[in-house]
C-alpha cells in the first residue's frame, strides 16, 4: 500500500484531520439530539453511522460501533451487551472508529440525560483526567505503557472513580492499522507494557497512541468514556 510511503508530518496531519472530522461528527450528534430517551442503543448507533455517511461519505469503521447506556456503560469493549432502550435519567457513551481517506480516528464521548449530579460530575471528570494524562505523557519522555496506565488509575481514584478496562489506550494509524492482537501488550497502555510509548514500529514509523479514559461508579452501576489522540 502506498500509504507506507507517507512521511511523518503527512501522517500526523492526516491523523489530526481524521480526528477533527470525528469531533465534528460528535458535535452534530449533540446538535441533532440523536442520544435521547426512548431510543434504542443500536438505533442510535445506526443513525450515527448514517450521519457520518451524510457528512463525510464514510462507509467503513475500523472497529465495532459502540453506543452504551445505563449499566451497559460498565462493560469493557470486548463485551456485547444486548440492545437497551435509553431512559430519561441515563448516562450514555459513544465510541466510534471511522476511517477517513484510509486514516483511522478513534473517538469517544459521554452524554448525560437528566440532572443526576454524580453522572454530571463523572462526565466533567472525563476530559479533565484525559488532559491530566496527556500532560503527564508530555512531561515524561521515556514513559512506558505501565507508567501511564498507573497515573491514569491514580487520577481516577483521586476523583473517586475506578477504571473500567484493563488498558487505557492503544496504537492508532492507517487502516488497516498494525494488527492489534489481544496478546500483544506492547500495542496497549496497560500495566503489562514496560516498553516506551515513544518508539517506532516495525516499519520505522513513529508510533501514535489513543488515550482512553473509561471511568466507572460500580456501586451505582454507571460509567463514562472519553478517548482521542494522545500523541498529537
Describe what this molecule looks like in 3D.
There is one protein chain. The chain has 232 residues and is of the alpha+beta class. Helices cover 33% and strands 19% of the residues. The chain contains four helices and nine strands, in the order ααβββββααββββ. Strand 3 and strand 4 (103-104) form a beta hairpin. The mean pLDDT is 91.
Query: Largest sheet, described in full?
Result: 4 strands, antiparallel
Structural class comes to alpha+beta
**Estimated radius of gyration:** 17 Å
Percent in helix? 25-40%
What is the number of E strands? 9
Rough outline: globular
Count of helices?
4
What are the secondary-structure elements, in order, as H or E? HHEEEEEHHEEEE
* Intertermini distance: 24 Å
**What fraction strand?**
15-25%
- Mean model confidence by pLDDT: 91
Low-confidence stretches: none
Please give the structural blueprint.
Elements: H1 8-31, H2 41-56, E1 66-69, E2 91-96, E3 99-100, E4 103-104, E5 107-112, H3 117-139, H4 145-158, E6 162-163, E7 169-172, E8 208-217, E9 222-229
Antiparallel strand pairs: 1-2, 2-5, 3-4, 6-8, 7-8, 8-9
Helix pairs in contact: 1-2, 3-4
Provide a short characterization of the protein structure:
By secondary structure, the protein is α+β, with helices and mostly antiparallel strands.
